[in-house]
Specification:
Rossmann fold, 18% strand, alpha/beta, Adenine-specific Methyltransferase, domain 2, nine-stranded mixed sheet, disordered C terminus
């Protein structure tokens, strides 16, 4: 079954979600995404009846307001999106910038959905003043209204009355977790996230993340972390400390989009890190990974 996704989002794990879900224990009561973005893992898990409840969080309040409309007001959102999509023709570029200005003034969810459907590479960018400043991809009109309505409706059906939404600092979310939960952490991409920058609403410092992981280990919380990897022979990101005792898994994610544009054959390998509590939880259920998709290296 094709999993619905209402909007493109740079760094989304939509294409590799099927490789991540096998590491989610079937006894998880709540799946928590402190950096939810496009909520790709929660949507994929809900579509497969994995986990009973979901907690979506992102520090960007406008994004979480959009998620509120997707889940609780899908028809109104789809109708407003359709109106904007139709009004953009024939002057799509000028219309995009007008809607961007309106969004920066009002933060209306339908405006953000339209912008996400049109921006370059699905990459949200904010100025130092917190103003959305990404440009449109003028080759595309954005998802067609009928397709958008279907996607929003399906996501709403999967997550309604099963989801909690918030816009909190990720550490506040982590401090509320229980041992029956599973957290999926996908922080802003390492190498661009050590301070606030134009590619993210807010960054995550390396030391803050390591401290948070150490706290989760002390509390015996199960978590999966997506954090680094490599493209071809180039490694991305600073290594995590060995004292966290994480188990690293590699996901072969195929050719990178940048390599494709350059006509190269560089393959992307993304890293997953499993917490000690999760590793034990999976071991207790006699879990065996699919060796065709994963390699393993224990960080000890």
């Amino acid at each position: 079954m094709q999993v619905p996704h209402p909007f493109p989002y740079q760094g989304s794990k939509r294409t590799v979600a099927r490789h991540i879900l096998p590491f989610v224990p079937r006894d998880v009561s709540r799946l928590v995404e402190p950096f939810c973005g496009s909520a790709a893992i929660s949507i994929a898990a809900a579509s497969r009846n994995i986990a009973r409840h979901f907690w979506l969080n992102d520090i960007d309040p406008a994004l979480m307001n959009l998620w509120s409309w997707i889940i609780d007001r899908p028809d109104a959102l789809a109708s407003e999106y359709e109106r904007l999509w139709n009004e953009q023709h024939p002057h799509r570029k000028d219309f995009f910038f007008r809607i961007r200005d309106e969004f920066n003034s009002s933060r209306q969810p339908p405006h953000l959905l339209y912008l996400l459907a049109r921006i370059v590479k699905g990459s949200i960018r904010y100025s130092s003043q917190g103003m959305f400043n990404q440009s449109p991809d003028n080759r595309r009109s954005g998802m067609r209204p009928a397709t958008m309505r279907k996607s929003v409706s399906r996501v709403s059906g999967l997550l309604r009355q099963r989801s909690e939404l918030s816009s909190l600092d990720f550490r506040e979310v982590l401090s509320s977790l229980k041992q029956t939960d599973l957290a999926y952490l996908d922080p802003p991409y390492q190498g661009t996230s050590f301070a606030r920058d134009h590619r993210y609403y807010a960054g995550v410092a390396y030391d803050d993340l390591v401290d948070a992981l150490s706290y989760l280990n002390d509390m015996r919380i199960s978590y999966i972390l997506s954090y680094d990897g490599r493209t071809g022979s180039k490694n991305h990101g600073k290594s995590l400390p060995s004292y966290l005792a994480l188990t690293q898994r590699h996901i072969h994610a195929g050719r990178s989009s940048q390599a494709t544009l350059l006509g190269k054959d560089s393959l992307t390998v993304e890293s997953l890190y499993l917490s000690p509590a999760l590793t034990q939880r999976l071991r207790d259920t006699a879990y065996e990974p699919d060796s065709a998709n994963f390699t393993q290296r224990a960080l000890v």
